[in-house]
Amino acid sequence: MIRVSDLSKQYGALKAIDQVNFHVEKGEIVGFLGPNGAGKSTTMKILTCFTQPTSGSVNIAGFDAFNDSIEVRKRIGYLPENTPLYEEMTPRSLLRFIAGLKGVPTKEQNKKVEEVISLFGIAKFSGKLIKYISKGQKQRVGIAQAMIGEPEILILDEPTVGLDPKQIHEIRDIIKNMQGKRTVILSTHILPEVSMTCQRILIINKGKIVTEESTVNLMSRFHSHNIFEIEIDGDEKKVQSVLRDVKNILRIDVKEKSNDQRNIYEIETEKNIDNRREISHAVVHNGLGLLSFKTVSRSLEDIFLELVTDEKEAEVKDE
Amino acid sequence: MNNFVTLFKKEFFLFFTSPVAYAIITIFMLMAGFFFYNIFAYYSVVSQQIAMQGIVSGSGGINVTEGILIPFHMNISVVVLLLIPLITMRSFSEEKKNGTFELLMTYPIKDYEVVLGKFFAAFAFYGVLITLTLIYPLIVSVYASIELPVLISSLLGLLLMGAAFIAVGILISSLTENQIIAGGLTFGVCLIFWLLGWMETEASPEIGTVLKHLSLIEHFQNFSKGTINTKDIVYYFDFIILMLFLTLRNLDSNKWRG
Ligand SMILES: Nc1ncnc2c1ncn2[C@@H]1O[C@H](COP(=O)(O)OP(=O)(O)O)[C@@H](O)[C@H]1O
Ligand SMILES: [Mg+2]
Fold first, then answer.
1. CA–CA separation, A105 vs B249, rounded Å?
2. What is the ipTM of this complex?
3. Three-state SS for B176?
4. Chain segment A237-267, per-residue pLDDT in tens
5. How many domains does chain B have?
6. Range of the domain at B160
7. Looking at CA atoms only, how far is residue A25 from chain B in angstroms?
């Protein structure tokens, strides 16, 4: 559906993006993840034909973004960063205007506009001027305008930035519901966002794609160690000595101390060896109380930091 | 064509959501009224004097066309020069500043449709202003008969000259995201084109003719006197087309820079 090849964009001496390559298949929801200034917006501006790349090409639904820009734009719904909208219009008049521009036939315009208005819960404020509605409401109008005309592809640049948790939840649900129906690329610099809404993640840093993998793979790839959180009732010294006798334990730390000897311990074990049975057995048979046992997986946040930091270190070496 | 109509309608109606539009209309009517009152009062005094001196009016006296219509429309053209920058300064600048420009340019519409939509919306708003000035000739027509051809040709001239100013304004507005700069520059550039005719006297004859030909006001003077020359019409059309073409080029180069 989307094929990006060797895409570069230079602003003066600054390489905003540098030799970016990726594919997105029909019906996929792909997360574009990277810190501020990584080049996410720049890439999206090129995909939506707002900006021309310095080199490289973009093919969307079989059309070249440069030579067939109108055909490409017909197939894309775009929400730019910060949701720019005509403040002096009402959501309803704005959506009608945009339906017109996107070539929705005049007879159907009303129907289509009312459809998105109810789909995104805009009805309540559809007659207010956009400058007077809240950030979350604005965001919904922004996504609605991208959706109108039923484009095959949606490109959403930081769709949840500046929203409160409830609103973020709503927007994420909207996006998740598009799975299989629309091809979606969304950018974010917030990690949990992509792991919750996207099947695949492209991590971009300093204009380069650092990694490209399914969310599941990415999580498991970095699952190289086993870390557990165990709450044990008993004297700390005894717990330490009991656990030290269990094989394949690399590290025992007290994570949370409590006054009544019910401490939470963090234990790291050898990777690819499951010794949870041995651990619980040792605890219980030595007269200690096993209160809880939890597997801790590393968050995407850690993975991300690691990827980005690795690159930084490599650069330092280069210099 | 559909896109042009959609854009035009939105742009035109958005004018009236802004207090700036009403301020422009008010200032325009006040200034036009002020000039009209002065010209009218002066004309009355002069024609009374002529009558008192016993000269039979009608043959030797100044007529309404020369006494009121021509000076009035010349004054209106100055007001237009002052106010058109206020009409066009928001056109592209505001969209660039708010980021809606990015949204607009990613809809499946052609650049020329955007430019024409904005140009004709500003022109239509300007048309409303010019239509409002008709009340003054209407007042005159209560007291004296008006030469309709002169009135029509003056209005045509005002519309064409205004359209040329608007085209300058649209071009400049596409160059900056700062409305104030857009407005100021538009005024400056229009003023230069206005004054070119005056510089004629100081320039050598060859350059003088060129300057005179380029001057926006020079061509308007013919219209205001009731003469419609193809040469003048062609001049305004060329000027407008050139400005809009440059706007289009600028939008295109934005894609490479922005
Ligand atoms: N119009 C522009 N002119 C000059 N530099 C720009 C422009 N747009 C973006 N940049 C620069 O390009 C880099 C990438 O920006 P951007 O794509 O907006 O990053 P992100 O969206 O990931 O935060 C940044 O260093 C930014 O300062
Ligand atoms: Mg960005």
1. 30
2. 0.88
3. coil
4. 899 899 888 888 888 888 888 888 889 998 8
5. 1
6. 2-257
7. 22
